[in-house]
Design goal:
The protein is of the alpha+beta class and 1283 residues long. It is built from 16 helices and 73 strands. The protein is 15% helix and 34% strand. It has a 7-stranded mixed sheet. It has a 6-stranded mixed sheet with strand order 44-42-49-48-47-46, with no helix packed on it. InterPro entries: UBA, UBA-like_sf, VPS13, VPS13_VAB.
Length: 1283
């Protein structure tokens, strides 16, 4: 059965099935019910229920329930639930009441148009069994389905036997991917629209349908049960439980235990399903019977759709109970092609996988949300086509792309001939029992001498599947390897079993090789047999060829299998090399084949040319001068033992333009072109003793005879005096020397800029590994020692490496001069005027003089140098190993004319001083202060702080100690504004202000070391407010790690108050890296501010930092909010709040608690009603000496117009004139508010409230006798407004 879960169709079916017949007449039905009730007894009801046993069995084989995301398309994406259901129910049985079995239950997602090709498993096939059983029958009771146990009479009405629910299932494996979640969400999103869709698919107006017949029929029965005195809600619940049977409903209502259930059932919408189930079952047992030999298991796998990686996780239920389980966390590792156990801790691979999946999911959502379709059609046909395209786009975005099949292997043929191949797939054993049995068969067969029969039995047990046909791959071609189709759906648990893929290869004209496993990454080989038609003399001793399988994995987890021969040629020269292959039988040039190798290329020799060809090489130097092939051919057979290396020096003659062979000294530079062929036998098995033909397994490297490596921070020039060869090697590069005379020793002269040429080094061809010292002198006769390291093999290339002992890298922006402490001669070698004026960008290389502990002497080559030991921390640790720094003499901090005069050799106002010494061989970070002494003794010294980091070099620079000098402070501008920086006490000087554009960073030094070291910043551009200028911020410290905000206030150019403009905020972060503090300025677009002041009162509030100036105060209006940061971050975070005419208080922003309350007095003015809301409001005013009341224009803040309400008792109060009283502090306790005050009163002896009339108002001292006349109730109609 195949059922589509189209809910609008299911709703129509449900309506048809639940619609009953026309209801009978209500009075007749009521009379019949009453008659039946009168003749019904409890025993008869029980007998009718128990004497008729019934059993229901239902079998649904291979049924499917299909949930689709779109019901209007045949190629919709769907989730299919498939299985076989067997249901049996016998409610009268004393043992098993109900049994439901779900066999081979599985769920998978697919596309309905191509279900088999796109099926992806979500739930692997599993078995579920749910049984509902009663406890064992009472003593003497029988079993069976008839319920023939011992009857207890009326006690059976109160005896309840709650059943036991038992759930059994096999190993449950669930796999979810992100696209599965998208598909399920799309399906769930379509359900409400299907449920609300009316039958027929037409939109009809909602009409209230009449009550159904079954509803009327139920109401008749409810009325009958209500006549017996039961509650209507209980009656409806009992009828629902009894299926409309009036007699059974009456029986249920008489049971006291079920009355509680009926009362709870009336609120079924708010009840918990598990709680309801717990009321009808005494126990719920969930058991798992795993059949894989590893115990019970419930696994949930989360799949990354982009990297095809499975990550196994566990799920925790929301209910409390007892559970016995084993938690295991696995992941599918494609390196091992199987499920591998993994510890439950977080690993870097997990975090990388999570971050990659999160970014891709976010990108997918971002792209899907950006898909928009604009419909601009004017005709009906265009509108329909646009709607159809929109639906396709929305479907593609909502359901996700279909996964393309993964191709695990790719074969590349570099053997030089055609290849035939086939793939064998071998499945692993499912359990340890079968594996042990196979091992036992092999062992027994080997002991009996029948290994061939045993191997055949093992192959049959492991289910060997081979491709029936061989496939052909041309030379220098590549192809994807197609594997057998996997039985079952993808992502099944069975598809993750370990499979062994073996590749069998046969070269054209050769015998097939033994299959090789291609699941592992590495380099493997197979020996191939001789072709059938080959000469017997050449191949009588064994195999004639060797084939290498190089297996690597690329970024998409695909394995690249490269087939090549076991003989390779690698070009390590700087120019192209031509390799010529000539047969021994046909040595003419016409029978040769040539290959060209670019620098760094590796060429596998075609396998058919290895045995009977000679190899000759020559370089392609230039178009004008060509070089002949080397006189000696490359003999790869001279290296016999594994990992043995044999070198040979080859000479090539130059050819002229007419292709005539010139004399050895007639080339472009005289001597022949030399190169070295180095043959290395790889770690292949040794050849068989007595074998006439050696198997290849060698790597041939074409190398230069002399390689000069420059590890200095500047270019190195060299000269060969005897050959008139000159060259230049850039920093960190190497150069090859080919024009040599192999009959004499090599004389090499090295030269550096600003140094005199030293004596040449004599390097013999038989030199071995040694280190020489090359001494140079600058133009000031300062000595510099360089290390020259020689590495060579017998008849092999010579590698000459030149390096320095120390590097000094200056990143401070200041001119630095270094010297050795004990040396009174001044700065070290190589420091001239460009270093004094900071015009040298390259690092400074230097060396220290030999002091105690250094080993010196003449070199073995007799070249005037000596062998020395250069290691980290060496040198004996004497005082001479210390160094000091100072600023350059041409550095003038004041700038202007003084700097210009100093540059011309004039008078200098500042003299640099040497700093405290330091040890250059001690790794670590230190801080030093550089002082500049002024000529005027009344001025303080200028101090610059720098950081020093001493560390050894990395990699090939490990023999060099690197000293990096950095500024103590680095300012990084990551905001969108141009910022200006200055020290707190130098903000008024333009010369001491530096400016940094966005995305810039620069070194910073304090202008005055004797002043407060506080940094100020302001906006240097006018983009935020063109008509305003930004003031300097408060000073803040940058010598400690912190994170805070800086408030920048803007004021008009006319000198307006700083608080009149909207403030600007900057985020400041101070971090430390080694010996440098990095100060980072950024915007706060997406960051919250540290403080926000919310004024929820009815008066304006003035706020400012307590210790800051009064000009930095600001006002927040009633009901408004204001962001705020400290004006002075270096001061205490205390804020003072005040109210006009009220109190003020100070609050500590580090203490989160209620502070002191602000108090203020509420004053009123008395306004004429007819003038309220007009431009001229008239209020009572009393500013004359005779205390006469007048109507005057309202003026804000005028005390003669203000009144204070003073309560006298609980019943009444009086108005007191504010202008006739002295001002008082609202925080002070009030002494006597009614003493010597004037109140608003009538100007008569006594008022007559009973008689209408008008009395004038006046100010009078408060009198107890005139309490009645001072009350506001006797005044004329007035309007009170709060000031």
């Amino acid at each position: 059965m195949r059922l589509f879960a189209v809910f609008d169709w299911l709703i129509c079916t449900q309506r048809f099935l639940t619609t009953g017949p026309e209801p009978p007449c209500l009075p007749a039905r009521r009379a019949a019910a009453q008659m039946a009730t009168q003749h019904l007894s409890f025993d008869q009801v029980r007998s009718t229920d128990s004497d008729k046993p019934s059993e229901l069995k239902l079998n649904l084989s291979d049924c499917e329930i299909i949930f689709v995301d779109r019901t209007d398309s045949r190629d919709a994406n769907a989730v299919i639930l498939r299985g076989t259901a067997i249901f049996a129910c016998n409610p009268t049985a004393s043992g098993r009441i109900a049994n439901c079995s779900l066999n081979s239950l599985e769920a998978f997602s697919c596309c309905l148009a191509c279900e088999d090709e796109t099926a992806l498993s979500i739930i692997d096939p599993t078995d579920f069994t749910v049984e509902v059983t009663r406890p064992d029958a009472r003593r003497g009771g029988g079993g069976g389905g008839g319920g023939s146990g011992l009857s207890l009479g009326l006690l059976d009405a109160k005896e309840t036997q709650q059943p036991v629910i038992e759930v059994l299932y096999t190993t449950l494996s669930i796999r979810f991917s992100y696209r599965d979640f998208q598909l399920i969400a799309s399906i769930l999103g379509s359900l409400p629209s299907q449920a609300m869709r009316p039958p027929g698919g037409q939109q009809q107006p909602q009409q209230r349908s009449p009550p159904s017949a079954s509803r009327q029929w139920s109401e008749c029965l409810v009325y009958d049960l209500m006549q017996l005195g039961f509650d209507p809600a209980d009656c409806r619940y009992a009828l629902g439980e009894a299926g409309g049977d009036l007699q059974l409903a009456a029986l249920l209502l008489t049971d006291p235990n079920r009355q509680a259930d009926a009362a709870a059932g009336s609120n079924g919408a708010d009840s918990d399903p598990l709680a309801e189930l717990g009321r009808y079952a005494s126990e719920i047992q969930v058991k798992c019977s795993g059949g894989n030999g590893c115990g019970s298991a419930v696994s949930c796998v989360l799949i990354d759709d982009y990297q095809d990686c499975d990550f196994r996780w566990s799920l925790e239920g929301p209910r409390e109970g007892r559970c016995s389980a084993t938690l295991m966390v696995n992941y599918f590792n494609r390196d091992l092609s199987a499920n591998s156990l993994l510890n439950a801790n977080l690993t870097k691979h997990m975090l990388d996988l999570y971050e990659s999946a999160q970014k891709r999911i976010y990108q997918t959502r971002k792209e899907s949300s950006a898909v928009t379709i604009a419909t601009t059609a004017t005709t009906v046909a265009e509108q329909r086509s646009t709607a159809l395209s929109a639906r396709r786009v929305s479907t593609a975005v909502g359901s996700g792309r279909r996964r393309s099949p993964f191709v695990p292997f790719r074969l590349v043929n570099r053997t030089g001939c055609d290849v035939h191949y086939k793939v064998q797939t071998r499945y692993s054993f499912r359990d340890d029992t079968a594996a042990a049995a196979a091992i036992a068969v092999v062992s027994a067969a080997a002991s009996a001498g029948s290994s061939q029969v045993a191997g055949q039995e093992v192959r049959e047990q492991t289910q060997l599947h081979c491709d029936p046909d061989w496939r052909r791959l041309a030379a220098d071609a590549e192809t994807a390897i197609e594997l057998d189709a996997v039985d079952g759906k993808r992502r099944h648990e069975s598809t993750h079993d370990y499979r062994v893929h073996r590749l069998a290869v046969q070269l054209e004209g050769w015998e097939p090789c033994e299959p090789i496993c291609i699941d592992r990454v590495g380099t493997f080989f197979r020996d191939t047999a001789a072709p059938p038609g080959a000469a017997a003399a050449a191949f009588s001793a064994g195999p004639a060829g060797r084939l290498v399988f190089n297996i690597v994995r690329n970024s998409t987890a695909q394995k690249i299998i490269t087939l090549r021969s076991a003989l390779t040629f690698t070009n390590r020269l700087h120019h192209r090399v031509e390799l010529q292959l000539r047969s021994h039988e046909h040595f003419e040039p016409s029978g040769a084949r040539s290959f060209h190798l670019e620098p760094g290329d590796c060429l596998p020799v075609p396998i058919r040319y290895i045995a009977d060809c000679a190899f000759r090489v020559r370089p392609a130097v230039s178009e004008r001068w060509s070089v002949d092939f080397a006189r000696e051919s490359v003999d790869w057979r001279r290296a016999v033992k594994p990992m043995e290396r044999r070198d040979a020096l080859c000479a090539c003659r130059y050819r002229g333009a007419d292709d005539d062979i010139l004399d050895s000294n007639a080339g472009p530079t005289g001597p022949d072109y030399h190169l070295v062929t180095s043959v290395l036998r790889e770690n292949f098995p040794a050849d068989i003793v007595g074998q006439s033909v050696a198997l290849p397994g060698h790597s041939v490297f074409i190398e230069p005879p002399v390689c000069l490596v420059n590890l200095l921070p500047q270019d190195l020039s060299y000269h060969l005096p005897m050959l008139s060869v000159k060259g230049r090697v850039a920093s960190g590069q190497e150069d090859h020397l080919h024009l040599l005379d192999s009959k004499r020793d090599l004389l090499l002269q090295l030269h550096l800029e600003n140094f005199r040429c030293p004596e040449p080094l004599r390097i013999p061809w038989q030199a071995r590994r040694q280190t020489l010292c090359l001494t140079m002198h600058d133009w000031n006769d300062k000595q510099l020692d360089l290390m020259v390291k020689l590495e060579s093999r017998a008849q092999g290339p010579i590698r000459i490496t030149v390096s320095a002992c120390y590097w000094l890298i200056n990143r401070t922006g200041l001119p630095l001069i270094i010297k050795q402490t004990y040396d009174d001669g001044g700065p070290l070698a190589g420091q001239g005027d460009e270093h004094e004026a900071a015009r040298c960008v390259a690092p400074l290389l230097f060396s220290l003089s030999a002091v105690g502990g250094e080993v010196g002497g003449a070199g073995a080559s007799g070249n005037g140098g000596w062998t020395r030991r250069c290691s980290w921390g060496g040198g004996g640790g004497g005082s001479g190993r210390y160094c000091s720094l100072r600023l350059g003499r041409h550095w003038q901090p004041a700038g202007g004319a003084a700097a210009a005069a100093a540059a011309k050799g004039g008078y200098s106002r500042w003299t640099p001083l040497w700093c405290e010494h330091f040890h250059p061989d001690s790794p670590g970070c230190i801080v030093r202060q550089l002082h500049m002494k002024p000529a005027d003794q009344s001025l303080p010294n200028l101090v610059y702080s720098i950081g020093l980091e001493m560390r050894p070099g990395r990699g090939r620079y490990r023999h060099t100690n690197i000293i990096t000098c950095t500024s103590r402070y680095q300012l990084h501008n990551r905001s969108s504004h141009v910022l200006a920086y200055a020290q707190r006490h130098c903000t008024g000087s333009v010369e001491h202000t530096i400016t940094g554009p966005p995305t810039s960073y620069q070194a910073f030094h304090w202008t005055r070391d004797d002043k407060d070291k506080l940094l100020c910043v302001r906006l240097a551009d006018q983009r935020h407010q063109p008509d305003a200028a930004c003031a300097w911020s408060g000073g803040f410290r940058i010598d400690e790690v912190a994170s805070f905000h800086v408030l920048l206030r803007s004021a008009a150019a006319g000198g307006a108050h700083l608080a009149t403009r909207a403030p600007h905020f900057l985020r400041v972060e101070v971090t430390v890296h080694r010996s440098t503090f990095h100060v980072i300025f950024s915007d706060i677009d997406n960051l919250p501010l540290p403080y926000r002041i919310d004024n929820r009162s009815r008066v304006p509030v003035t706020y400012r930092q307590t210790q800051a100036g009064a000009e930095l105060r600001s006002v927040v209006r009633p009901g408004a909010s204001a962001p705020y940061a400290l004006d002075e971050p270096a001061l205490k975070p205390h804020i003072t709040l005040s109210i006009p005419g009220g109190s003020c208080a100070t609050y500590d922003m580090n203490c989160v608690s209620a502070g002191e309350q602000l108090r203020y007095e509420t004053l009123y003015d008395v306004t004429l009603v007819s003038t309220v809301g007009t431009l001229r409001e008239l209020v009572l005013d009393c500013d004359s000496p005779d205390l006469r009341l007048l109507l005057g224009k309202k003026v804000d803040g005028k005390r003669s117009q203000l009144w204070r309400w003073q309560p006298v008792s609980d019943n009444y109060g009086i108005f007191i004139h504010e202008g006739t009283m002295p001002p008082r502090d609202p925080r002070q306790p009030k002494s006597e508010p009614l003493a010597n005050c004037y109140a608003l009163d009538v100007d008569c002896i006594a008022s007559r409230p009973s008689k209408p009339g008008h009395d004038p108002l006046r100010l009078a001292k408060r009198d107890v006798k005139r309490a009645w006349t001072s009350r506001p109730g006797i005044y004329v109609s007035i309007y009170l407004s709060i000031y």
